[in-house]
Design goal:
- Mean pLDDT is 84; it is low at 155-228.
- The chain folds into 2 domains: 7-260 and 419-476, FAD/NAD(P)-binding domain (3-Layer(bba) Sandwich), CATH 3.50.50.60; 272-409, no CATH class.
- 46% of the residues are buried.
- The strands form 8 sheets. The chain has a 7-stranded antiparallel sheet with strand order 24-23-20-21-22-19-25. Strands 6-2-1-17-27 form a 5-stranded parallel sheet, covered by helices on one side. Strands 3-5-4 form a 3-stranded antiparallel sheet.
- The chain is elongated.
- Helices cover 31% and strands 23% of the residues.
- The protein has 484 residues and is α+β, with helices and mostly antiparallel strands.
- The two termini are 32 Å apart.
């Protein structure tokens, strides 16, 4: 006898969730994706606005070092779905890629939208169903998933929620004054049956979900409305950065209430606050700092950054942000050193600074002999007094190592990504929550971080792949509680 098709709810429509959905659908599951936003992949599209950097083509052993203290946890995911496999997957979507001079990998047209469109088309062709504007609100006391929709919050229970047995239109159950949504036979009707055979497994809620009329195992229950069984859930809800695009970290409390250990969400790939003078802030906020090098500890990076009204930000700063953030947490501040002339030796700078300037002003001298003007010249005046500016030895050393006192990272909502999340100790090797069998986690909601340059997306795709494969395997053998 043919076994009924397994059904999975994927909550979160970013790269990790969509990859999990693809793997599950390919494995034979009926998959439905729920996202709080009006459309899926919004952060993915935003990340691609400056050029869609998908991954990095550097040596794999070097690639793995980019994950710092979480390498041991991220490495198995990347070995399961490495950067080369990611590129091959993109090519299979009909999107060509190229490797830039920095070894970063981009789609040929540098855009995210064509890739996402091709991907969503393939997912729909494989039977994946999408639900926009469905914000996950956790589980109710019976173990059913709850979603807030534009029509109000719907709480669906595996028990008979209605006393009447009349035919449609029927209603979702309403409790505690939550709005009821009248439904017709042609409207997506949300109901839930929890677990493979019973609402609870080993005393813990198994995966449950609300589903629409179309697709999957379904039928009218004795309560008079449509029901569908969900056998597993993949959570791919993002971290806490860019909340306007959907990843607002609201899931933290929901999982903590179920006993899941969550490392606090913190900004990563972020800017930092500096107490600029009013003059400098007024005249140079928004100015780029080009061709500089930044040093913190024993790490030196060269590139560009941006002066902001609050401090400093940009790719060069993001590359050092994890260490800078941790230093501020320990000491209350961190000192970053900027080399304003990274291609000049100290000796050359000293020679030019000490060159007789005659009647010229110091500003004219710095511009003509060293090319320092505008924001770079005024940065020197931010850290040196008028008297110190005339100390040629001190001035030369400051040009090569200008100290900036960073007093705080910018808020999480402004960061490119976040650190913290579901700890790996709470997960098994397949990314299933040990305390919630049948519930898997993927993407930025896990406790890891990486610099920009393709490393973030690579690990998100890889974790979605592993979670999807883990859920597929678990559906075939839904035993144990993930504590191996």
């Amino acid at each position: 006898m043919k076994q009924p098709q397994k059904c999975v709810a994927v909550i979160g429509g970013g790269p990790a969730g969509l990859m999990a959905a693809e793997v599950l659908a390919r494995g034979g599951a009926h998959v439905e994706v729920f996202d709080a936003m009006p459309s899926v992949g919004r952060k993915f599209l935003m990340a691609g606005k400056g050029g869609m950097n998908i991954t990095h083509a550097e040596d794999f052993d070097i690639f793995l070092t980019r994950y710092g203290a979480r390498r041991e946890h991220i490495e198995p995911l990347l070995r399961a779905f490495p950067p080369d496999a990611l590129r091959a997957w993109i090519h299979d979507l009909g999107i060509t890629t190229f490797v830039g001079t920095s070894h970063r990998v981009f789609p040929a047209d540098m855009k995210a939208a064509p890739l996402l469109r091709a991907w969503l088309h393939r997912l729909r062709e494989s039977g994946v169903i999408f639900h926009a504007r469905h914000r996950w609100c956790g589980w109710d006391e019976q173990g059913a998933l709850r979603f807030a929709t534009p029509h109000g919050e719907l709480r669906m229970n595996p028990e008979n929620p209605l006393a009447e047995t009349s035919p449609p239109p029927c209603r979702g159950r309403v409790r505690e004054g939550v709005e009821t949504l009248p439904l017709s036979i042609s409207t997506p009707i949300r109901a839930c049956v929890v677990g493979a055979s019973a609402p609870y497994n080993h005393g813990l809620p198994l995966a449950g979900a609300t589903f629409p009329l179309q697709g999957g195992r379904s039928g009218f229950g004795s309560n008079g409305f449509f029901e569908m069984k969900a056998d597993a859930v993949v959570l791919a809800l993002g971290g806490g950065s860019w909340p306007q695009l959907g990843s607002d970290g609201a899931w933290v409390t929901l999982l903590e209430q179920r006993g899941i250990t969550i490392a606090p969400l913190r900004p990563s790939n972020c800017g930092f606050e500096i107490a600029w003078s009013a003059h400098f802030r007024e005249h140079f906020s928004g100015e780029p700092l080009k061709s500089v090098a930044a040093t913190f500890g024993d790490v030196r990076k060269q590139g560009e950054c941006l002066i902001s009204a609050h401090g400093i930000e940009g790719g060069l700063i993001y590359a050092l942000s994890a260490a800078l953030r941790d230093e501020i947490e320990r000491k209350g501040h961190a000192t970053l050193h900027l080399d304003l002339l990274p291609d000049w030796t100290m000796q050359k700078v000293q020679n030019e600074v000490s060159h007789p300037r005659g009647a010229r002003s110091l500003s004219s001298h710095l511009q003509s002999r060293l090319g320092l003007k505008g924001v770079k010249a005024n940065l020197l005046r931010e850290v040196l007094s008028a008297e110190q500016m005339h100390d040629t030895n001190l001035l030369a050393h400051t040009i090569k190592a200008l100290p900036l006192r960073l007093i705080a990272p910018r808020p999480l909502s402004e960061a490119i990504s976040s650190a913290g999340g579901v700890t790996f100790a709470a997960l098994d090797k397949n990314l299933m929550l040990k305390e919630l069998p049948g519930v898997f986690c993927a993407g930025e909601m896990l406790d890891w971080e990486a610099p920009t340059g393709g490393y973030l997306l690579s690990a998100c795709f890889a974790s979605g792949y592993v979670a999807g494969k883990g859920a597929t395997d678990w559906l075939k053998h839904p035993s144990g509680d993930g504590r191996q």
